């Protein structure tokens, strides 16, 4: 490890119980010493993603829901110290946090680190990164969610979850705005570009117009898709989708009497349906509709987290005859160190204006950010640490 200082103390959002039980608290924690393949990052900002809320909201499955822990997996900051085997960054470098991958498994070796057998999807975290000094709660606190746990002023990050953007950012303020690139924006854009490989010949439907869905809309526009349909039930998001390139927006709360969302979509797509349908909602009724509305030979890509026990039932014979493919994708099949620089260059060219989706607020206001994300007032809350 380079540098003298071995541990850092600062604020973190510690989930001691589920969010619904008001179990997320701002506390002072001290980082554990970094290992040879880890970095100590001073966060300047963290994006809030639904996966943080999902993993910090439940109980029952101890692999998924355990406390106390620091969540957060979208983040940006500056490196304070690096372990002896870290090659990707040095103290002072600007970095974005994304997801961890092992580099040894068949997925990683095959260029699909987001499908890492060791680190993803739900085997992240559960490793101690912090100690809390608070008299009320002294003791160890888990970190390394997605390899890093970004909801802290100082955090320990596995080297593979870190992307060096020193040469790509111009200021601390810009670095703060870039915080969500490592998950939400990469997931939406990567699903269209890397998974669907959408082209101008394709019509595309995106269900759910949050950070992931609206990034998918921007990427569909970037890919020249001929018909781009956004579906949601929050008015302002419909407008945002259109201003980002959607050719149509469907408000499911305002469908004319008797018309289903499936009919509404198919009417806009030559009666046959879209070639690509991306579900970012995880809402069972919409997942079923997504599969049905898609044209023969089309792809349905599941990106939103459904309730864990929800099962999709398919009539196998008819489904075979439809030639459709229902598939899952995580993080848009992205290799973050390639895809994040690409998103930044599209942003610079005005083709991926993700800054229009974010709202910055002090880390102490995290509950407001979560609330505004749920009501639809804010697409992507970013909490700032300094
Ligand atoms: C997650 C969705 C749940 C599985 C891991 C990846 N994506 C973004 O947060
Ligand atoms: Zn996420």
TrEMBL record:
Alcohol dehydrogenase-like C-terminal domain ranges (all copies): 211-346
Keyword terms of this UniProt record: Metal-binding, Oxidoreductase, Zinc
Domain Alcohol dehydrogenase-like N-terminal residue range list: 36-165
One Pfam family of this chain: ADH_N
Names of the cofactor(s): Zn(2+)
GO molecular function list: oxidoreductase activity; zinc ion binding
Domain of life: Eukaryota
Keyword Amino-acid biosynthesis belongs to the record: no
Family to which the UniProt record says this protein belongs: Belongs to the zinc-containing alcohol dehydrogenase family.
This protein's name: NAD(P)-binding protein
The organism of origin for this protein: Aureobasidium melanogenum (strain CBS 110374)
